[in-house]
Amino acid sequence: MSTKLNDPFNVCTSLKDERGKLLGEFYSLPKLAAHPSMERVRRLPISIRIVLESVLRHCDGHRITQEQVRELAHWNAKKPSLSEVPFVVSRVILQDFTGVPLLVDLAAMRDAVAELGKNAGCIEPLVPVDLIVDHSVQVDHFGTSEAFAFNLQMEFKRNRERYEFLKWGQEAFKTFSVVPPGVGIVHQVNLEHIAQIVFAKPNGDGAVLYPDTLVGTDSHTTMINGLGVVGWGVGGIEAEAAMLGQPVYFQTPEVVGVHLKGKLKAGVTATDLTLRLTELLRAAHVVEKFVEFFGEGAASLTLPDRATIANMAPEYGATMGFFPVEHNTLDYLRAPGRSQDVIERVELYFKAQNLFGMPSAGDLDYTQVLEIDLNSVEPCVAGPKRPQDRVDLKDLKSSFESLFQSPVTEGGYAKPLSERDCAVKLKTPEAPELKHGSVVIAAITSCTNTSNPSVMLAAGLLAKKALARGLKVPSFVKTSLAPGSRVVSDYLNQTNLQKSLDDLGFRLVGYGCTTCIGNSGPLEPVLEDAIKEGDLVVASVL
What we know:
- Helix 2 runs antiparallel to helix 3 (66-73), helix 4 (96-115) crosses helix 8 (236-243) and helix 16 crosses helix 18.
- Among the domains are: 12-87, no CATH class; 421-541, Aconitase, domain 3 (2-Layer Sandwich).
- Strand 20, helix 16 and strand 21 form a beta-alpha-beta unit.
- The N and C termini lie far apart (56 Å).
- By secondary structure, the protein is an alpha/beta fold.
- Helix content is 36%, strand content 18%.
- The chain is globular, with a radius of gyration of 25 Å.
- It contains 19 helices and 22 strands.
- The mean pLDDT is 93.
């Protein structure tokens, strides 16, 4: 027998599959919208409605009141309330650098309870918590077939005590799980394996259905927004509160709608689009706002492309970069082998909530609407210092020369252009020259890029073409390949493109965050000496 749900607005209803089998009960947003004066719910942004569902489901008159439900249901696009939203998330995701201190706090709580003569086992996260170990690998060894094994061995040697503590945590807490080193980057593992999209929480002999929502202790937690999951990065205190079932509070946000039109041209990648959007959205001042993508252009993007865009939300300043659930989402769920029952549950639930499908222009209310034609996006890079400083590839040389002589206060290097061709010979048998602008680190890495099959396959094809033309990487460049998950290695090996990358020097060094967070490892001493001797402005390319 199911436990009666708390339902002050009388909106709970049953969801059945096409065969009439009961899947569970859920808090119906369409039923809420049918209440007098609640009609506005139908035109709320998808992201706001998912947050509203959580507020509605947890309304108990104490932690969350009926007035707070009404206030969010009446969200005003042009002038949102200044009130805080009490958001109870479905789960929490951690990486090892920021996650270990949270586990220490849980252990300390258990010690305190035990000292009081109580059952220490009563201290337990009230929502599922997943910790992915991905921030501790360093590129000590590169360019050889033994690099991955060597770096993994060094990682375990350096972090043995931390990893033993994490293993204890997984065994001690029922709702705390650990993904070990050498598996992948937290955000890609979240996409491929952890995300549920719709939870089915047992309730007696039935279930309560609700959207997958989360907070994480990493700024790029937003990558999961590409899958239609509401979530973002928070600090340790907020994450601990969420682990213990408490609301995460944030001010009622503005929501910027981004209307994507057209399709990307051949040769233009999701990374190019992301850098263009970062430039656009930084200029639109979207800090602490939700960004929600819609339109025919958004519908044309693959799920990995959406995840790439969502991943960069911290760089364009938004709390989220959200894409709604639709058929591409379901196709992506099939790829890693999620069951048909799970996929059917996701589709039926989101359709029952009127949350399924890509909105068109005018369907929903947004604080502001921006437009971008995907056909206008060109190949580009960003930098050298900030992700919003986008540079078209054709302008890269002139951009570097301009920054080379610009004042430091303007993001430049304050060097006379006459020094541009200054060179220092490396003290090695080959004696290659190092000069201003030389690339010394070339890393195929980052949770943004190495999780996107089209970008990774393009890298492999580029390597293959380079080898065919007799090109090679200079001996002084530190090359590395750190994929977002082992799935990347699978398809690179199956297409034989990993061999091309290997032959060019981009051999596997690990699965995790490397160069992006400063874990590129040291340069060769002879290289460091040359850079210091010539006071050279050198580059890394990620």
